[in-house]
Write a structure and sequence with these properties.
Helix content: 40-55%
Shape: rod-shaped
Radius of gyration: 54 Å
Number of helices: 10
Largest sheet: 7 strands, antiparallel
Number of strands: 14
Distance between the termini: 58 Å
């Protein structure tokens, strides 16, 4: 399992599938909610139309038994007086819930003497034309009915003010909606009810509740839900498959790069390169960067190999010379060349010091953060050297005094080796940088060789003896130290025709 989801391809597929699944779930829930709301609102509009039609008939003094909305083909309709008594209801209505009252058997009263009669049942209900005994019996029945009826919800002051302002024959502009259920002719269904108030001429304030079936809403929601339950998993599976295929094709060059890098590691052949796709995306840039890294690594390794070979060659010469002299001295003490032995030993010591410094520079050793005055350093290094002149202004830089002194010493040694008579040293400021220049009056350096002389173990005069020249590390060390101090070291032509070396460093 860890190996399966440890790949970028698997994680991308899983992530895309989860995102799509969440998006589909949220979208589906929103669509179902919108569909349910729209269909419920449509049923409410239908119910309101029926309720207002019945209210218009009541306003026109239509008797309860002649109301067109109470037919068996219509939805459930109730008419309730202002006391909460059911006065008219649809035919075949057997059970109802969610309206003002859950009664289904109407008890219509006779017309009121005036629409502004008192709210008391004994005052608002007119006397019936039956005998006195039947009146007593009806009053007892009405008391029992009132105990079982569901009272209307309390009205707000705004609603009471609106109802009181209705003129006889006028319907209220406010419609109250609710949801419930009803059973008509043994068929139970959910309905959306709308309640409308109407002020009649002879029966007082009545409330008409009419219902519209929600069967279409339930059917549409069930159909949509079924489609989503079937379609959404298929769509998520399709997205997962497409993501798997697309990421596989996109990552195919990465697999090629990995295989080639593994082969390069196994063969240690740094001349090989990874394949670069013809696209211009991140993978192509990764391949190009990898090849650039391999090229730099190959150059570094080759440089290291040459360095080791050249160092071994340079060390072999003084060691062999010193050994020969010691062997001769052991056999013939009178033939010992003591000065030559000391000279070879010193040369060997200097070479070992140069190699050690180069190794530290290659290892990334950072110079110490100290303030060094190049003018004072130039005067110290020039002291005791014949033919060296100094013209310097004070310029402080940050770095290692010992390494900077080594740079200046190498430049002065190189100048004295090739100068005819004099070597001049100058220090000046140029903006935010300090420039130390060393010039000689010798033959100079050809323009084509002005970069090559900074390579390690490079000596332009191949015919020169090793005793007269160095090992070819002085200028290489000088440039490396300059770079480590954030500066540059360049070679050019001096005004006198000789060589000019300029060390440029940022001011402290």
């Amino acid at each position: 399992m860890n190996r399966l989801f440890g790949s970028v391809r698997s994680r991308a597929t899983l992530g895309a599938t989860l995102v799509v699944a969440v998006a589909l779930f949220v979208t589906g829930a929103a669509v179902l909610q919108a569909l349910r709301s729209n269909l419920t609102a449509e049923a409410g509009t239908q119910a309101e139309g029926t309720a207002r039609a019945v209210a218009s008939e009541l306003a026109a003094r239509t008797p309860y038994d002649q109301l067109s909305g109470l037919g068996s083909k219509s939805g459930p309709v109730q008419v309730v007086d202002e006391d909460g008594n059911l006065v008219a209801a649809s035919e075949d209505l057997q059970r109802i819930s969610g309206t003002v009252t859950d009664r289904v058997e109407p008890r219509p009263s006779s017309p009121s003497p005036s629409p502004s009669a008192s709210a008391s049942p004994s005052q608002s209900a007119p006397a019936r034309e039956d005998d006195e005994d039947e009146d007593d019996e009806d009053e007892d029945d009405e008391d029992d009915d009132e105990d079982t009826e569901t009272p209307r919800s309390p009205s707000t002051p705004e609603d009471e003010e609106s109802e009181a302002s209705l003129a006889p024959g006028e319907s209220g502009r406010q419609t109250t909606f609710s949801s419930g259920a009803a059973t008509m002719d043994d068929d139970t269904a959910d309905y959306r009810f709308a309640a409308v108030d109407v002020q009649t001429h002879d029966r007082g304030l009545l409330t008409v509740s009419a219902g519209a079936p929600l069967a279409a809403e339930h059917s549409a929601v069930r159909t949509a839900l079924t489609v989503m339950l079937i379609g959404f998993p298929l769509l998520a599976a399709l997205v997962a498959g497409m993501t798997w295929v697309v990421t596989g094709r996109a990552l195919r060059p990465v697999a090629g790069i990995r295989e080639e890098m593994a082969a390069i590691t196994a063969s240690e052949d740094l001349k090989r390169r990874v394949p670069e796709p013809g696209t211009h995306d991140e993978i192509a840039r990764l391949a190009r960067t990898t090849n650039e890294t391999l090229a730099a690594l190959e150059t570094s390794v080759e440089r290291q190999r040459r360095f080791v070979a050249d160092a071994s060659h340079e060390l072999r010469s003084p060691i062999a010379s010193l050994r020969t002299q010691l062997e001769v001295a052991a056999a013939h003490p009178e033939l010992l060349d003591l000065d030559g032995a000391v000279e070879d030993t010193v040369r060997l010591q200097h070479l070992a010091a140069d190699l050690l410094l180069l190794a530290r520079l290659d290892a990334g050793e950072r110079p110490v953060d100290a303030r060094v005055d190049l003018a004072a350093l130039a005067r110290e290094e020039a002291a005791g050297r014949t033919g060296v002149t100094v013209d310097a202004e004070s310029a402080e830089v940050a770095g290692s005094r010992g390494q900077l002194a080594r740079v200046l010493g190498n430049l002065l040694d190189n100048g004295r080796r090739h100068a005819r008579e004099t070597v001049s040293v100058s220090v000046r400021r140029e903006g935010d940088r300090a420039v130390l220049a060393v010039a000689d009056d010798g033959d100079g350096v050809a323009e084509a060789d002005r970069e090559r002389i900074f390579e390690r173990f490079v000596r332009l005069d191949d015919a020169r003896s090793r005793d007269d020249g160095g090992a070819g590390l002085g200028l290489a060390i000088a440039r490396d130290v300059a770079v480590r101090h954030g500066g540059t070291l360049t070679a050019g032509a001096a005004p006198s025709g000789g060589a000019l070396f300029e060390l440029c460093l940022p001011l402290a």
